Amino acid sequence: MTSAEHARLMRANQANWDARTPVHVTSRFYGLDEDLDPERWFAAFEWEDLGELSGRDVLHLQCHLGTETLALARRGARAVGLDFSAESVTAARDLAAKSGLDVTYAQANVYDAVAALEGRRFDVVYTGKGALCYLPDLDRWADVVARLLRPGGRLYVVEFHPLLNALGPKPGPGEGPELLLRHDYLGGSGPVHRDATYTYTDGPAVEGATDSYEWMHGIGEVVNALTDAGMGVRRLRESDELPWPRWPRMVRTDSGWWRLPEPRIPLLYGLLAVR
């Protein structure tokens, strides 16, 4: 696909996330009207890999409602969140104000982050849990990340494993509960078009823009994009847990997250890279 076609599909995604946001804000899934615990979205290994954040400049790319951004700020970071959805950024600012945390938010496409943040550099860039699948070009993304980091700065990606994405969000019509490969594990075949009339949260149907496009990215593609941008991979973890029960037969673990009783397969990965 051409860059113009990529831009058109990303604009469709932006409109869809603007339309999703009101549903997400009032959902039980996010629970924003309850006692907010933003750290529930983090695995213990994330904090171990991120290390000390107090006094550090931390950028959360593709932050959506900014729940994880708040957790970074609670850990003492000078936190900045960036998202392409104006509705999401507005909701994130409201949530930060209610939480009493000093977080800065910017609205921009991730590919335009350097200009949108006026060349500011960061000690840590954090991203993930459903972010990279909305980016058609990982080489361009990795170049942006490298330009956002100070020398010695760290990127931390915590993403849904490409195996999880290949399994698809739910069984198709007439299918049973078996785990079946429904999409490519590897990228290169173009975007997957989804009907996002209903999102991954509870709540009513999305009103308006319901077209959504996702791109598959294997772990090798992520690693190669980062190393080609001059970054060194320091750690790669694979985890069999998710922060919510994607399938009904998942069981809760001592961490409060969820895993399949069998088979034991990777559902999430954490990747630490250094500029």
Automatic annotation (TrEMBL):
UniProt protein name: Class I SAM-dependent methyltransferase
Q: Which InterPro entries match?
A: Methyltransf_25, SAM-dependent_MTases_sf
Residues annotated as domain Methyltransferase: 58-153
Q: Report the Pfam families cross-referenced here.
A: Methyltransf_25
Q: Which GO terms describe its biological process?
A: methylation
Q: Looking at the record's lineage, which domain of life comes first?
A: Bacteria
Q: Which GO terms describe its molecular function?
A: methyltransferase activity
| Keywords, comma-separated and alphabetical | Methyltransferase, Transferase
